[in-house]
Structure formats: structure tokens, C-alpha cells
Write a structure and sequence with these properties.
- The protein has a 5-stranded mixed β-sheet with strand order 3-2-1-4-5, with helices on both faces. A 5-stranded mixed β-sheet has the order 8-7-6-9-10, sandwiched between helices.
- 42% of the residues lie in helices and 19% in strands.
- The radius of gyration is 20 Å and the shape is globular.
- The chain is α/β, with parallel strands linked by helices.
- The chain contains 11 helices and 10 strands.
- Helix 4 packs across helix 11, helix 5 packs parallel to helix 7 and helix 8 runs parallel beside helix 9.
- Bound molecules: 5'-O-[(R)-(carboxyoxy)(hydroxy)phosphoryl]adenosine and zinc ion.
- The site of zinc ion has 5 residues, from helix 4.
- Zinc ion binds next to helix 4.
Length: 336
């Protein structure tokens, strides 16, 4: 089956054509970063308008790259939520229009479940597995039985890890998005220079919290009442490296706790922050030491894309799940 996948939940306009959930014929991602960088974050209205402007050209490009015509598409999978409401609606409306015109099924897909699915593409994740989805909007741990059977084990009670990277980068005078900027700045730095807190690391739960860590960086830079000068410090590299080390410690520590808690020996980490080299290195070390099978999807599948949406859509369809034309988008992550 040939599925067209559409992803517009945040600031990437993405369309893919995927065969039988695994063979990627095209995977086009139009990043809106240049539109949002001057605001140091995604501006929802700007994102919706850009999706509206670019989605159809991106659909055309994805079909062309795949070498197929619209009439050959067997179903359309689209991100239903969570995400920005206006952004989601652009993708959902386009998907509904396409299926109504073509007379093929529609499959609404959960964005977080789609991120997990990215680990099933290619070499493939062995199940049962623990999955950590860590991005600008989410930091969530799951128990994964199959592509369509996932159970939430824990998630952030405040900021997402990527959001902390973005906010701390801004404090340090670095560019947006903050993750890659901090990673680069940290290269020449000493990760043990500042002992930032590791929030909830010793906690029994599988939840995360990053807002206190972000505040700790602010206090370190501007004093206890955050009233010091706002200029970037001289030791940006050390602070960036120390902050990165704290985030990585928490993410790796919670993955290990989830593996122990579930007695599972297979792990995947995906989402934009999974592009972080220090995180990947630490995960590889810990997995080797503990004899855990680690699967890190290639970077292009870790960040937002529509191949993961089309892929998961295929498995839902194969299990008999499709969506009526009146489905709504949703903005908040599901609890299960
Ligand atoms: O998954 P994604 O592309 O979009 C969603 O948020 O869904 O993730 C974007 C997030 C941003 O917060 C960005 O700063 C972070 O991923 N990120 C990184 C790196 N590359 C992107 N964080 C740490 N290190 C990186 N190399
Ligand atoms: Zn995402």
C-alpha cells in the first residue's frame, strides 16, 4: 500500500510517500526555522500561515520525488495532534480534502506515537521496548509492545528538554534553535565546570522536570534574584557544556530506570533532542555496559517528518483502524 503522510503539528511542513510502512519513496521536510529564529521560538500564527502557503507545493514535490501520481495513493495519514491548533488544522483539512477527492481512507495519527514509529523504520526496533521521545514540545517515556501498542510511563511535568535547550541558549546569547547551538558551544567547554541540578533524577517516578534547571542557569548567570547584567558570560562554553551534561544525565538516568522498572532490554530515543551527540554517545556507552539493545533512528527520522506519520498510518490501517472525515485535531498529549 502507498500512503501519503502529512505532518504540520509545529514548524515543519512535511510530506512523505511510504510503501507498506517501511519503504520511504520520498520524505520532504520544509523547515520554518528561518521564519521563527528572530523570535527565539515558534510563533503559532506564523507557523499556520507558512503551512498554508507551502503544504500543496510540498505535496507535489513529495509525489514527484516518489515518482508517482496522486491517483496512485492508497490512503492518507495525517498528524491529528498534539501540536499547535492552527498548524494541525492546515494539515488535517488538506488530508480530508485529498481523501474526499480520491475516495481513499483517512488515518489520523498521534504525533508522539509517530515519533516512536520512526524507530521501526529501517533496521527496526525489537519489542518489547522502552522509547523516549524528547523534542521541543515533549519529553515522554513509553513501553512499546508494537507500532500501535504503546503505553505512557512518564513525562515532563513542566518544560520539555528541547524547550530548556532553546531557553538556555537564549540566556547565553546563542541562536535558535538552541539545541544545536548549545551542542556546538559546549564542544570546547568543561561539562563539570558548574554543578547544575539534575531535577527528579533520584526520584522513583519516570516523570521529568526541566524548569528548575533552566532557572538554575538563570541564577548562575544573573545572581539569586536574577537581577544581574543580562550580557552573555565569558564562560559560555563551560556553562553550555555543564547544562548539556545535566540534561543528558537526567534523560539517560530515566531511560535506565524505565528499563529496570519494566525489565525490558531494548531502548530507542527519538525526537529533535535525540540528535544531540553527547546524548547519543552516553546512551551508546550505557547500553553497552548494561547489555541493552539500543536503536537510535537516523537524524532525519528523529526530527519532525512525515515518513513516520505515513508509516504508523499503514500499521493502523492494517489493523483495521481508519478515521471518519469529521475527526478533530487535539492540542494536548494523550495520557495513555
Ligand atoms: O522533534 P523536533 O524537530 O520538533 C518538535 O519539537 O516536535 O525537535 C526540536 C527540538 C528543539 O527544541 C531543538 O533545540 C532540539 O530539538 N534539538 C536539539 C538538537 N537538535 C535539535 N537539542 C539538543 N541537541 C541537538 N543537537
Ligand atoms: Zn515532534
Amino acid at each position: 500500500l502507498l500512503l501519503l503522510g502529512i505532518e504540520t503539528s509545529c514548524d515543519e511542513t512535511a510530506v512523505a510517500v511510504v510503501e507498506d510502512g517501511k519503504r520511504i519513496l520520498s520524505n520532504i521536510v520544509l523547515s520554518q526555522v528561518p521564519l521563527h529564529e528572530e523570535f527565539f521560538g515558534v510563533v503559532p500564527e506564523v507557523a499556520s500561515r507558512a503551512h498554508d502557503f507551502w503544504l500543496l507545493p510540498v505535496v507535489k514535490t513529495a509525489l514527484k520525488k516518489a515518482g508517482i501520481s496522486l491517483a496512485e495513493i492508497d490512503a492518507v495519514a495525517v498528524t491529528q495532534g498534539p501540536g499547535l491548533i492552527g498548524a494541525l488544522l492546515v494539515g488535517l483539512t488538506a488530508a480530508k480534502t485529498l481523501v474526499a477527492t480520491l475516495g481513499v481512507p483517512l488515518v489520523g495519527v498521534d504525533h508522539l506515537q509517530a515519533h516512536i514509529y520512526s524507530a521501526f523504520i529501517g533496521d527496526g526496533l525489537t519489542t518489547p521496548a522502552v522509547a523516549l521521545v524528547v523534542s521541543g514540545g515533549h519529553t515522554s517515556l513509553y513501553r512499546v509492545a508494537s507500532p500501535i501498542e504503546v503505553e505512557l510511563l512518564g513525562r515532563t511535568v513542566d518544560d520539555a528538554a528541547g524547550e530548556a535547550f532553546d531557553k538556555v541558549a537564549r540566556m547565553l546569547g546563542l541562536s535558535y534553535p538552541g539545541g544545536p547551538a548549545i551542542e556546538k558551544a559546549a564542544e570546547g567547554g568543561d561539562g563539570s565546570a558548574v554543578n547544575f541540578p539534575r531535577p527528579m533524577l533520584t526520584d522513583e517516578s519516570l516523570d521529568f522536570s526541566f524548569s528548575g534547571l533552566k532557572t538554575a542557569v538563570l541564577y548562575h548567570l544573573r545572581g539569586q534574584n536574577a537581577k544581574g547584567p543580562a550580557e552573555p558570560p565569558d564562560d559560555v562554553a563551560d556553562i553550555a557544556a555543564s547544562f548539556q551534561e545535566a540534561v543528558v544525565d537526567v534523560l539517560v538516568g530515566k531511560c535506565i530506570r524505565a528499563l529496570e522498572f519494566t525489565s525490558i532490554r531494548s531502548l530507542t530515543v527519538t525526537g529533535g533532542v535525540a540528535a544531540n551527540k553527547r546524548l547519543r554517545q552516553r546512551l551508546v556507552e550505557e547500553a553497552e555496559r548494561r547489555n541493552i539493545k539500543l536503536h537510535l533512528p537516523p537524524l532525519a527520522l528523529c526530527t519532525d517528518n512525515a515518513a513516520m506519520v505515513a508509516g504508523l498510518g499503514y500499521h493502523l490501517l492494517a489493523a483495521g483502524v481508519s478515521s471518519p472525515l469529521d475527526i478533530d485535531s487535539y492540542t494536548e498529549a494523550k495520557n495513555s
